């Protein structure tokens, strides 16, 4: 399926799976029966760095596991029913969480808070109890709030290590590269139009830094406004098109598998694995914002280095100013919930 000879040469940033190192890892998906969980489980089954895949959901995970387990890659797959959360987490090194409800048209990600906050808190408690050293990748929305909830839950349990908690903002990066390639001209490949996206993961908190991209820096005026809007509201495009049937699942599964592979490469000691992710960050701590997405180097301990956002244009400075107050409010909402 992925025969090497059939592939054109790829840059490190463009590969879905790359595996220069040999150590393999047990990965658990919480919410594996869902719209994201199913294709994500399939993609993780295809990742050569995953040795064992543990699939959990309150419904349907054993069926998904039976199905995915027939794919002829080396990893083993196990499915766990609703009452087997602790067994699903035993011995796992990486936990990916796409559990929770998705948006319908007319909703914001924050409208998911009331349902998803407690789902994520309870799953984080289980990770703290059963796999306290695991790296946790949070997909469930609203990411700007669910990540602080997971952090506070782990902190309460005395096992929080900020190097091991990640909000998955990779879909924004994937969209930015795709949309920029689309307006750059025929034949331009998204592999060559990577854009760093910083801030958070909802509307105005998503800040693409086009000025730092060789193709993006020439996008000005109305074209700039349009592509920024499209990157910030790409999720709404999918919610609208699915017309009540949910939000992005396939592109998110791709993005989730891509970020998981980056983390696994870092854990295996590969150098120079750098990608944006929403982590506990010192960058805007002086403004009371202690979670932020910027480029992060992933390594054997998880977060090895958090990069500052670097030089940005006056337009991007304005976007950042719009991002920060909303991001702060989202983070505080998560913390207030976790403190109850
Ligand atoms: N970070 C990002 O960029 C993105 C995040 N999302 C978010 O991902 C989440 C999932 O989206 P979909 O897969 O489309 O939803 P979905 O409804 O298709 O699947 C969610 C799954 O979570 C399961 N679930 C609910 N409570 C659970 C619990 N306590 N333990 C384990 N599993 C549980 C459900 O049974 C269901 O199978 C949503 O919150 C959505 O907003 C979606 C797209 C992008
Ligand atoms: O829009 C949503 O609700 C799902 C999501 O986070 C995205 O597609 O970026």
Report on the architecture of this protein.
The structure is a single chain. The chain has 340 residues and is an alpha/beta fold. The protein folds into 2 domains: 23-167, Rossmann fold; 170-338, Lactate dehydrogenase/glycoside hydrolase, family 4, C-terminal (L-2-Hydroxyisocaproate Dehydrogenase, Chain A, domain 2, Alpha-Beta Complex), CATH 3.90.110. It contains 10 helices and 11 strands. It has helices spanning 37-45, 61-68, 85-89, 113-130, 143-156, 170-184, 221-232, 234-242, 250-267, 314-339; strands at 25-30, 50-56, 76-80, 94-97, 135-138, 165-167, 197-199, 206-208, 273-284, 289-299, 302-306. The protein has a 6-stranded parallel β-sheet, with helices on both faces. β5, α5 (143-156) and β6 form a beta-alpha-beta unit. α1 crosses α9 (250-267), α4 (113-130) packs parallel to α5 (143-156) and α5 crosses α10. The radius of gyration is 19 Å and the shape is globular. The model is unreliable at 1-12 (pLDDT under 50). Belongs to the LDH/MDH superfamily. MDH type 1 family. Residues 25-167 form the Lactate/malate dehydrogenase N-terminal domain. It comes from Jaapia argillacea MUCL 33604. Residues 169-337 form the Lactate/malate dehydrogenase C-terminal domain.
Task: Describe what is shown at a glance.
This protein is of the alpha/beta class and 340 residues long.
Biggest sheet record: 6 strands, parallel
| Ligands bound, unique | 1,4-dihydronicotinamide adenine dinucleotide, oxaloacetate ion
Low-confidence stretches: 1-12
Order of helices and strands: EHEHEHEHEHEHEEHHHEEEH
Number of strands: 11
Q: Which strand order spans the largest sheet, edge to edge or round the barrel?
A: 3-2-1-4-5-6
Q: What is the rounded Rg?
A: 19 Å
Overall mean pLDDT score?
Answer: 94
Structural shape: globular
Task: Summarize the amount of helix as a percent range.
Answer: 25-40%
Q: Name the CATH homologous superfamily of the largest domain.
A: Lactate dehydrogenase/glycoside hydrolase, family 4, C-terminal
Q: What is the class of the largest domain in the CATH system?
A: Alpha Beta
Percentage of β-strand residues: 15-25%
CATH fold topology of the largest domain:
L-2-Hydroxyisocaproate Dehydrogenase, Chain A, domain 2
Please give the domain count.
2
